[in-house]
Design goal:
The complex is a heterodimer of chains A (91) and B (334).
Chain A (H helix, E strand, L loop, with lengths): L8 H23 L5 E2 L5 E2 L1 H22 L4 H18 L1
Antiparallel strand pairs in A: 1-2
Chain B lengths: L1 H5 L4 H12 L7 H18 L13 H22 L1 E3 L5 E3 L3 H8 L1 H31 L5 H11 L6 H11 L6 H8 L11 H29 L3 H9 L4 H12 L1 H16 L3 H6 L11 H11 L3 H28 L3
Antiparallel strand pairs in B: 1-2
Classes of the chains: A mainly alpha (91), B mainly alpha (334).
Protein name (chain A): Putative small integral membrane protein
Pfam families (chain A): DUF2160
Organism (chain A): Planomonospora venezuelensis
Chain lengths: 91, 334
């Protein structure tokens, strides 16, 4: 049935991870509601906003990396996750 | 409102009530900003005691389902395409991030990216001031208001490909009125099929002609929602026309201009039909924007993998720019 979607294990893992992340954020919001505050991004953000900004920034890092250098993409992934983490904590 | 305000309600509360009655979005306005803080403090102390019933959110489910069906699932498929070399649903090879690397380093793609960015910047720089100027100079009431509205809205009623066809003929030097006039009256050699600058100008003018009315209508609606007392106060203070515009009209247009800028950026960044009809991306590749290049790869050459990677990078850029615009225009000053 889903043959036309030509799934591969890595992309399935990525989407499953995203779904888990969103579900986790929903549960977390239930346990302790997010509070908006201002970090080094200078705009008022709550947890979900920072997750979105972090994911988009991570994607931008990966794109920039693949566009300019041949270094390993695992290194790029580490950098991207670091960026997302920094934005998530102090953004 | 003024009557109740005189009865001892603080000016801030009166302003809030006034804002609610007129039903406007008061973003960015200093008056509204000052007024909004006062009830916010009231609510914060009350909010915790109230039980919340969020079941109304289930009414959003149909939208979620339809968006999942029309946007999320196709997008997932595009992601799957972008990491494989696909010959048929059963005959496909996983290639990892190769397509992303190819697309991100392709000089043709990079040139098209810069070209599209330049085009969007020019579109915004031309259409936003022009649309606001048009809206300000349109009559506020009377029979001429309706007449002006109809005339301004006319280009919006024309489908994209017809706009393309109109301008394809209009800009021609031999049989088109516009092209002929430019060639004959100032005597400038204008030929959009041969000269890349002329082709660019033609496509840009066409977009300005087609979409400035949208900005004008949005701005006009924003201007109409400004209550008359603002203008009366400005008149009493002896404010000049420019001061009235700068300190009353422009700040109150912030909300609609946010929408106008977002819409015009996204539309011009994704522009496809008009340049496809008028120039087909040429001459050479002077007007081959990202969308034209993408459709050439996806539909023309049927390279689904590179096209998928291309679309995702394209999507990422639109996301980033739209989010930055949105944040800058709605969250600054908070």
């Amino acid at each position: 049935m889903l043959e036309w979607m030509v799934w591969t294990p890595p992309t399935a893992a990525v989407f499953a991870g995203l779904a888990l992340l969103l579900a986790g954020m929903a549960v977390w919001a239930r346990l302790s509601p997010p509070v908006a505050r201002r970090g080094f991004l200078r705009i008022e953000t709550d947890r979900g906003d920072r997750l979105y900004i972090g994911l988009i920034s991570a994607a931008a890092v990966l794109t920039g990396w693949i566009a300019v250098t041949d270094l390993s993409m695992w290194l790029a992934l580490a950098c991207a996750l670091l960026v997302a983490l920094v934005i998530g904590i102090w953004g | 409102m003024t009557g109740r305000g005189a009865d001892g309600i603080s000016p801030a509360d009166a302003a809030v009530a006034g804002g609610q009655v007129t039903g406007e979005v008061l973003t960015g306005d200093t008056l509204a900003g000052a007024a909004r803080e006062a009830p916010g403090e009231h609510d914060a102390s009350r909010a915790d005691t109230r039980t919340k019933d969020n079941r109304a959110w289930f009414l959003v489910l149909p939208v979620v389902v339809s968006v999942a069906f029309t946007a999320v699932i196709p997008l997932m498929t595009v992601v799957n395409f972008s990491v494989q070399d696909i010959f048929s649903p059963t005959d496909r090879i996983f290639v990892g991030l190769d397509w992303f690397r190819d697309v991100a380093r392709d000089p043709e793609v990079r040139a098209a990216f810069l070209r599209t960015l330049l085009f969007s910047a020019q579109v915004l720089l031309l259409e936003i001031p022009l649309g606001v100027a048009l809206a300000v100079s349109m009559p506020r009431r009377g029979p001429w208001a309706s007449a002006a509205l109809v005339v301004v809205a006319l280009p919006l009623l024309i489908p994209w490909n017809v706009v393309g066809t109109i301008w394809q003929i209009f800009a021609r030097g031999d049989i088109g009125l516009g092209g002929w006039a430019v060639n004959t009256i100032p005597g400038v050699d204008f030929n959009y099929t041969l000269d890349s600058t002329d082709a660019w100008i033609t496509v840009l003018l066409m977009d300005v002609w087609h979409w400035t009315p949208l900005v004008a209508l949005l701005a006009y609606a924003g201007l109409r929602s400004i209550p008359d007392p603002y203008f009366q106060a400005a008149q009493i203070d002896g404010a000049s026309g420019w001061a009235t515009f700068r300190h009353i009209q422009l700040p109150r247009l912030r909300g609609v201009l946010t929408i106008a800028i977002l819409l015009r950026f996204m539309d011009s960044f994704m522009i496809y039909t008009e340049p496809f009809v008028v120039t087909g991306g040429g001459p050479g590749n002077a007007t081959s924007f990202l969308s034209i290049l993408l459709s050439k790869i996806a539909v023309g050459q049927f390279d689904l993998g590179p096209a998928g990677a291309f679309s995702l990078l394209y999507f990422l850029i639109v996301q980033i720019v739209s989010y930055v615009f949105f944040t800058v225009l709605t969250r600054t000053g908070r």
